[in-house]
């Protein structure tokens, strides 16, 4: 356990010089806090809920100065308490640490801190003075003793980091409040720039993202979370095309020599993101894709009524616009191997293979050759080919889809559009347990899909090689397990038959090409996914992997984040021979491991203003066609929604013994 010398956190005072039976408290249970980087101990930590000092020789004045300097730098300037208060306090602390006569005494600094905390209009101003006030209230004597000699304070090492709950929840760490600020300021082109710094598929993400950021949004404690995904789509739809291309071309570093080229295998979201960031880094990138279109599972696994294919094509085409090459119809193991890629002069290889093989139900009567039986992925691939006019597909009668995730929701809504008379969802847990996005479940219900929850298939019934029905059993919930989730068990004697013409198993996906890379010296893990470490490096030097092929089926935003991280690490591996230490990533881990981002309080009352929702086609109309269901909001609606953001920025800083690389 890391021992706290003194500090205050959440109003609790920690002071090893004070007996515990008075005002002192036992050590806070800090995790992963001994060193910031190798051989560099953490001496102090400051945040929005207080501060900890681990080394008695730390200068409080210098530490608080750097903390307030970062707050002043990030202040938006809208309200006076934060705009002026952070600057005045920063300058006063600067004078103290330099051994000069301060512009404000401690009483005035405390007064300004209280004004910021109580009257600022956003989360940054409300929280940036917490550590300062805690130090003045409980350890003023230390500050006075430190400044009494009137001599400069020795410089300290460390760093400051600004974030927000929505930023930390986003796998790609998009600066959400910043791009919302630009919408509020009437600068949507700047807003798009914030997104394009992280990934190229903003319009796609604005349609299908699962919204981890909105789950973390503190506005939900007032009324509803800010429509972050809705605003992202608005910006991308308004500013796509030439605007996006010009911005990204301006971001390209100096092009590297012709021999500095990287191969990306797979043109899904992970591969596209990796290629994008490598191109911005000046590399020459070739993307090998076994199909004849880019997009991967976003292309074949998300129906057009959710993600129009022209939108996806426009965004993936940015790879070619930036100088990359798509090599379609090139399959790993058939047309080339990893050995071949290195022999052709590629400095590194990224594997973004995805999970394009469906999982089986594992029940009696199941046979992939049955007429009327599909895996979820195979069915969505056929839907894709139908919409593209490659191979028409029509359904009739009753359709049963087994599963409760987004793939299952895509299958049931697509089946309805293909002519099914009735579509049923069979899920062994409750509706509340379904992993699908709540909006997708609600949309399916609005279109007339029938949900059979706490129900599980036990056997597929057939006649002459064709599906005729499915035997189901009712499930009963048991006590919660160690994770808190209630298990389910079959109810004896509850078996019953649901006649149907089609069964779609939408219960998961697997890596399809795992065995091919294994033969090239790339190890798989026990789930038959590509084994990769924290840097996304595989067992073969120079080969990196990310996205669904390393984690199993996940989300588009996680895949793009993996591609971005892999590009950064590939750059290091080529240029340095090893992956660098990233201090911002280390700070994020400190915050996450110790759950420093509070998630239960709104400091200042906010007037209720419920979120703007995307206009939608009428359910009775849309269930007969594959045109996009949701529409883009108006500029007026976007401005109104942007006003709801509370700018929940938080400042964190560490003091370390040595400089941070």
Automatic annotation (TrEMBL):
It comes from the Bacteria. One of its GO terms (molecular function) is oxidoreductase activity. It holds the Pfam family NADH_4Fe-4S. Residues 61-106 form the NADH-ubiquinone oxidoreductase 51kDa subunit iron-sulphur binding domain. SUPFAM superfamilies: alpha-helical ferredoxin, Nqo1C-terminal domain-like, Nucleotide-binding domain. Transmembrane segments: none annotated. This is Formate dehydrogenase beta subunit.
């Amino acid at each position: 356990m890391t021992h706290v010398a003194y500090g205050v956190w959440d109003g609790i005072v920690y002071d090893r010089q004070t007996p515990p039976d008075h005002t002192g408290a036992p050590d806070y249970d800090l995790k992963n806090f001994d060193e910031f980087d190798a051989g560099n101990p953490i001496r102090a930590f400051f945040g929005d809920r207080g501060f900890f000092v681990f080394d008695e020789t730390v200068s409080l004045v210098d530490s608080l100065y750097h903390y307030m300097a970062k707050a002043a730098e990030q202040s938006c300037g809208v309200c006076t308490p934060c705009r002026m208060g952070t600057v005045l306090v920063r300058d006063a602390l600067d004078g103290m640490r330099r051994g000069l006569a301060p512009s404000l005494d401690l009483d005035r600094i405390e007064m300004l801190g209280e004004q910021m905390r109580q009257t600022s209009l956003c989360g940054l101003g409300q929280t940036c003075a917490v550590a300062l006030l805690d130090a003045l209230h409980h350890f003023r004597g230390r500050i006075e003793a430190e400044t009494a000699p009137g001599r400069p304070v020795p410089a300290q090492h460390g760093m400051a980091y600004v974030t927000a709950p929505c930023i930390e929840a986003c796998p790609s760490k998009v600066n959400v409040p910043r791009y919302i600020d630009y919408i509020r300021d009437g600068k949507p082109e700047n807003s798009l720039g914030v997104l394009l710094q992280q990934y190229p598929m903003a319009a796609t993400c604005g349609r299908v993202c699962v919204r981890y950021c909105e789950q973390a949004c503190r506005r939900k404690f007032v009324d509803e979370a800010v429509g972050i995904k809705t605003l992202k789509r608005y910006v991308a739809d308004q500013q796509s095309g030439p605007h996006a291309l010009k911005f990204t071309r301006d971001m390209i570093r100096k092009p590297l020599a012709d021999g500095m080229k990287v191969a990306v295998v797979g043109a899904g979201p992970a591969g596209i993101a990796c290629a994008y960031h490598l191109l911005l880094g000046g590399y020459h990138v070739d993307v090998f894709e076994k199909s004849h279109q880019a997009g991967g599972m976003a292309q074949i696994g998300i129906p057009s009524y959710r993600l129009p294919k022209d939108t996806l094509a426009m965004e993936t085409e940015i790879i070619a616009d930036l100088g990359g090459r798509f090599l379609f119809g090139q399959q790993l193991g058939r047309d080339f191997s990893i050995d071949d890629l290195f022999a052709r002069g590629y400095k590194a290889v990224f594997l973004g293979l995805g999970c394009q093989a469906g999982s089986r139900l594992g029940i009696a009567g199941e046979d992939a050759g049955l007429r009327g039986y599909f895996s979820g992925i195979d069915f969505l691939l056929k839907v894709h080919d139908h919409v593209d006019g490659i191979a028409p597909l029509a359904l009739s009668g009753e359709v049963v889809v087994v599963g409760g995730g987004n793939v299952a929701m895509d299958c049931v809504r697509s089946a309805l559009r293909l002519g099914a008379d009735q579509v049923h969802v069979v899920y062994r847990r409750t509706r509340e347990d379904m992993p699908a996005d709540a909006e997708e479940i609600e949309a399916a219900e609005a279109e007339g899909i029938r949900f059979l929850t706490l129900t599980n298939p036990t056997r597929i019934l057939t006649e002459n090689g064709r599906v005729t029905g499915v035997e189901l059993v009712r499930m009963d919930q048991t006590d919660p397990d160690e994770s808190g989730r209630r298990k389910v068990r079959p109810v004896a004697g509850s078996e019953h038959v649901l006649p149907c013409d089609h069964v779609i198993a939408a219960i998961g996906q697997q890596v399809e090409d795992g065995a091919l890379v294994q033969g090239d010296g790339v190890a798989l893990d026990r789930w038959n996914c590509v084994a990769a470490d924290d840097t996304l490096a595989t067992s073969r030097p120079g080969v990196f992997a990310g996205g669904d092929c390393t984690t199993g089926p996940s989300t588009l935003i996680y895949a793009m984040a993996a591609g971005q991280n892999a590009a950064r690490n590939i750059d290091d591996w080529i240029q340095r021979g090893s992956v660098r230490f990233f201090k911002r990533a280390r700070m994020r881990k400190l915050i996450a491991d110790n759950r420093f981002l509070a998630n239960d309080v709104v400091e200042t009352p906010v007037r209720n203003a419920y979120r703007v929702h995307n206009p939608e086609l009428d359910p009775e109309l849309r269930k007969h066609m594959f045109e996009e269901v949701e529409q883009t909001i108006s500029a007026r609606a976007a401005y109104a929604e942007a006003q709801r953001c509370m700018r929940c920025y938080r400042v964190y800083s560490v003091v370390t013994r040595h400089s941070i690389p």
